[in-house]
Automatic annotation (TrEMBL), chains A, B:
GO terms for molecular function: glutathione transferase activity; maleylacetoacetate isomerase activity. It comes from the Bacteria. This is Glutathione S-transferase. It comes from Aliidongia dinghuensis. Belongs to the GST superfamily. Zeta family.
Amino acid sequence: MQLYSFFNSSTSYRVRIVLALKGLDYDYRPVNIRVGGHRDPAYVAEVNPSAVVPAIVTDDGVTLGQSLAIIDYLDAHHPEPRLIPEDPAERARVLELASLIACDIHPVNNLRILKYLQDKLGVTAEEKDAWYKHWVAEGLAAVERLLARYGSGPFCFGAAPTLADCCLVPQIANAERMGCNFDDYPKTMAAYRHAMALPAFAAAAPKRQPDFVQ
Amino acid sequence: MQLYSFFNSSTSYRVRIVLALKGLDYDYRPVNIRVGGHRDPAYVAEVNPSAVVPAIVTDDGVTLGQSLAIIDYLDAHHPEPRLIPEDPAERARVLELASLIACDIHPVNNLRILKYLQDKLGVTAEEKDAWYKHWVAEGLAAVERLLARYGSGPFCFGAAPTLADCCLVPQIANAERMGCNFDDYPKTMAAYRHAMALPAFAAAAPKRQPDFVQ
């Protein structure tokens, strides 16, 4: 399998965690989104029409983009360990938390948005920082409420990692890098720290990737 | 079942389409997000800790937020018609397109983001309009490429509607309201128009909801 990834991309990081948890080997294909590598015509035409990272190309030649679709696919084809539960009640909670992170938090703070704010709207560094922290704070407050109501540690939902943890970890790691404060999210941070202690989560971290640069 | 919804919310609209396609009855519970109804303490505590719309409360008392999680749940419990295919190859394409819309297009243009741009960053009406149209154009270009590569009409993927159509229709309807141009997306618009001709899609439209106002 090939994984098209950028070391600092949270959505790539989600898929790297899943591949590591399942023990799947893959060729790492770096796509430098800082210089527009995701818009390279050959990449868009042959690998990912969405023109984003991540994407996978399986050994059977299936190309697939969008981290949540990729993870659903990997979970069906390589079900050990199962990351999207089959039990309907557990499944609903895992997908709810994953969607909250993937739809309500991550998209408004990714690189292209921050670049647009800076380059096209001319916001100051302080305004950009406030924007980032505002959406993280609003989103993590919701994560914390969901975990308070439905969560059961030590992972987000019970004794084993799920898709929820695979989405949570990159989001928190990103927010740590941006200097956010996490005092109000004790359950969220407990789940994060628990996951980070696992070798699979550690191996997927940005600094462990071949395209990592400071 | 109860559906907590705002007439103009694209994510609520997705769930309304699914409920209509499956022929499920529900009580419509309006949440006016324009005046912060989604942050009402009783709503957050009792219905949706995410503090957004939509949310459902089933007849068994299950409360669930996040449109994609709700649709997955409804599709498992009321599988006629199936909207998230079981066949792995079809399923991957449907989830990829749905994720593209739900993660890459919708979140950066919803009400809270446009309000922040206007109220906190003081962008002009022209800048806000350009922001909206920029992300729609970038997103729909990706939708069009995905459909060109993997789609098969008359719906996004074949002869019956799927989750992809349930996400596409509200996104296009929203973009139409905002005056976007669709000339570059013929396959996307053909799928949109085909879906809009179905009574279930028409019944879910904002103007058909009890909380609709001009």
